[in-house]
Design brief:
alpha/beta; Rossmann fold; 3 domains; 22 helices; about 55% helix
Length: about 450
């Protein structure tokens, strides 16, 4: 038990899950008090001991299945033992059934929620249709696809849905949700069976290397899929609250309150009426105002999806948030974000209106910043914080850095968040240095972890 536990912790650290030595010791100690024959209990206990963030639970469950899904199951005795890996030739009743009969049996297992039958059928399906090639260093995604393609989950759902025809709407809906959950369980069972066979063929450590994926906070904004960007939304609301608190704290330390004349004169009585020490009232700075300018040009399309989510989350945390988008022009989208029911609808309206586009929609930071300064620069004031989100790649146009200088002279703070690696700054058409001299900070912001680092700088 200890050997696979040690290997599992090593792999979790490799993909970025923070596990300290104390937590490692706690994990070993907790095993002394658990029924090792109960796999689910062991998994839950180790998850509670080693995982500190909900975002890391999926990574833990995957790695746990790799290192405790074969040898550990057999050693624990009570854990369910899956069939041995092979070419799918299992013998017995299942192997003698043709594909149509096996599909009917699968439908029965799904209708009856029969877990043992489902696992046995899945093992036969993977062996028959997965086409697993021994020794091939792959993650197994294609094997899962081939198996599910043979099963055709959409067709299964259609046949299961027919059972609910004629029922009351609520009962039908509940039954359909139950069937959808069963099909999700089928997919999970196929993935688990493929992983088990790969582990039996190459070992857990080798398979773990092919399955490594970045944690949610390490996903690169510029290369993330739409689903990954959507998954980041859960961490943006607390980050927006921390950002608002950090900026308010900076204003509180930076500003001196008004002179308290009465207390100063009272204090001067001890020095013969000479006001040696001035006493000021405690400052009560108002909630800061925020202006966000986000690049939505094609070169940072995925990052733009993230920035819209960030602007949407910031609305409730500041007394006034004004949101602007730009490519080669600039437009205010504050009203769109306030009225849209969600960020998806807001993005659709912004795209349909062609916001931020002046000529061809290719990045022109100089024209965008100059336009912002001309149209809205006078509305920037000392309590305003300006955050610019973009890669500062200007397509070799005039950067017009004087426009940003004029904004910075009026604003309380100016911050620039750049989604590109720092090593790429000031290369090619990047003009980060020309703008950076007028900013309080220029921060690399390629993922959620770096965004958290920026917020922590303000605390």
């Amino acid at each position: 038990m200890l050997a696979p536990l040690d290997d599992m912790i090593t792999e979790l650290r490799q993909i970025g899950v923070p596990i300290s030595l104390a937590e490692r010791i706690d994990a070993v100690r907790c095993l002394r008090h658990l029924p090792l024959a109960d796999r689910d209990t062991v998994q839950a206990a180790l998850r509670a001991t080693l995982v500190k963030s909900h975002d890391h639970e999926l990574a833990f469950d995957t790695v746990f299945g790799l290192f405790f899904g074969t040898e550990a199951e057999e050693q624990a005795g009570g854990w369910p033992v899956r069939p041995a890996a092979g070419d799918g030739s299992r013998g017995g009743a299942l192997a003698s059934l043709d594909d149509d009969a096996l599909a009917e049996l699968l439908l029965t297992a799904l209708r009856e929620n029969n877990e043992l039958m489902l696992r046995a059928i899945v093992a036969e399906l993977v062996g028959r249709h997965g086409g697993i090639e021994p020794g091939r260093p792959v993650a197994g995604t294609y094997y899962v696809f081939r198996t599910l393609r043979a099963v055709d989950p959409d067709q299964l759902l259609a046949r299961l849905s027919a059972d609910a025809d004629g029922e009351q709407p609520l009962l039908r809906r509940l039954r359909l949700e139950s069937y959808q959950a069963q099909l999700d369980r089928l997919r999970e069972a196929v993935e688990a069976e493929v992983r088990r066979r790969l582990v039996a063929d190459r070992g857990a450590a080798a398979v773990a290397r092919t399955l490594r994926r970045p944690l949610p906070e390490d996903m690169d904004f510029l290369t993330s899929s739409g689903e990954q960007v959507t998954a980041m939304r859960a961490v943006l609301d607390p980050l927006a609250r921390r950002l608002a608190g950090g900026l308010a704290e900076k204003r509180r330390h930076r500003r001196t309150g008004a002179l308290d004349f009465r207390r100063t004169m009272r204090e001067s009585m001890s020095t013969g009426g000479v006001p040696v020490r001035l006493i000021f009232r405690k400052p009560h700075p108002a909630k800061p105002e925020l202006i966000v300018l986000a690049d939505i040009s094609g070169s940072v399309a995925t990052f733009a999806a993230f920035t819209l989510q960030l602007m949407y989350a910031l609305r409730a945390q500041f007394s006034r948030v004004r949101s602007f988008v730009f490519a080669d022009g600039v437009d205010e989208v504050t009203g769109v974000l306030q009225q849209a029911p969600d960020v998806v609808a807001a993005a659709r309206q912004i795209n349909e209106a062609g916001s931020g586009v002046w000529l061809d929609g290719r990045s022109d930071y100089g024209h965008a910043l100059s336009s912002f300064q001309d149209r809205w620069g006078a509305q920037v004031r000392g309590r305003t914080t300006v955050i610019i989100l973009g890669d500062a790649r200007n397509n070799y146009h005039d950067p017009c850095e004087g426009a940003l200088k004029a904004v910075a002279e009026r604003a309380g703070h100016v911050f620039w968040l750049n989604p590109e690696p720092r090593t790429a700054w000031n290369t090619g058409d990047s003009v980060v240095a020309k703008y950076g001299q007028f900013c309080d900070a220029v921060q690399e912001c390629r993922n959620i972890r770096q965004l958290k680092s920026f917020v922590e700088l303000l605390d």
